[in-house]
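Onboarding guide, step 5: your first structure request.
Type a short instruction followed by the sequence, for example:

Predict the 3D structure of this protein.
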Amino acid sequence: MKSNRFIAGFASLLLIVSCHNGNHRHGLHEEEGHNHETEAEHTHEGEIHDHEHEAKGHSDEIILTPEKAEAAGVVSEKIVPGEFYGVIPVGGKVTGAPSDQTMLVAGVSGTISFLTPIAEGTYVSEGDPVFVISGEHLQDGDQSERARIAYETAKRDYQRAAALVKDKIVSEKDFNAAKAGYENAKLAYEAIAGNGKDGVEVICKTNGYVKNLLVEEGDYVTVGQPVATIAENSRLYLKADLPERYFSLAPQITSAKFRTPYDDTVYDIREMGGRLLAYGKNPADNSPYIPVTFEFNGNREIISGTFAEIYLLTQKRDNVISLPTDAITEEQGVNFVYIQIDETCYKKNEVKLGESDGQRVEILSGLNGGEQVVTNGAIHVKLASAGNAIPAHTHQH
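The system replies with structure tokens like these:
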């Protein structure tokens, strides 16, 4: 009986020890599983943190593929300090050079008619008849007809005197008088002869544009009266209005650039055979401006009489960083350029601007030289920055 109770107690002890060991192993497994899970979570959080850190380090970069950049006309160039001229921005006007203008005048008195429709700005060619003047319905009659009659009469008198002077029937004095009358009548007739059947034509003597039309259809004109001004536009004047406060800089002015209201092109008169003619020593009457006048070769794109935005160039400065005006973008009053880091990556960079000559602008700060800066198509890089700033770019520098 005692033996049976001992066996039952020993079995119970083994069962308790076995359960305890099982529970202990189960706890170990749970702890190990928890440790692996925690480690994985920490590893994942670390990767997220690394990506976020990397994204933060490249958030100001812009991706633009070479194909898209070429299609948008994006061009960059290495910035090197160079020469730059001081600039005085002023207003002014383009006018025709006096030597470049021809005045058409009436050769006879009479009523004037237009042979073809004509207005200011019409192009006319050398040798073209522009107007015709007729005295048909005037009291004195047609002047060309009177000149023809006077010429033929003087010619007959001269021929008769020439035949009689040999025989001393007409004196030498009378012969000379007849000869002079004939030559004067011939000059007067030839000046208006050979014109249209309806009157005396006014012939254009040069190629050019009608600058001023001084008569209207049917007006009465007298001999020598101006009827139109023809401008060749081969030589033009650029007249700048220099404010008085810049008078001390007037001797330093060497050349000029200008832009017209109807064209974005900036013209450099140095490239157009231009030169400085003179600058005034005092302001014009009732004007706060001093005139500065240049002469240059004209072309058909530049209209005489147009107003202009003028950049007067003064002394040359060396070692100046400058960029084309198209390289500059502006946001809320702050100016930026875009630096190309490599083939696909760009970075926005703030700059402070100095003087501008209409084509290039001086960079006071923000660039040191040597940077690869977008000089054409900067607006396309700016637009790209709004849509593809690289939040998780893994670009290596």
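Each response can be followed by summary notes, for example: The chain has a mean pLDDT of 80.
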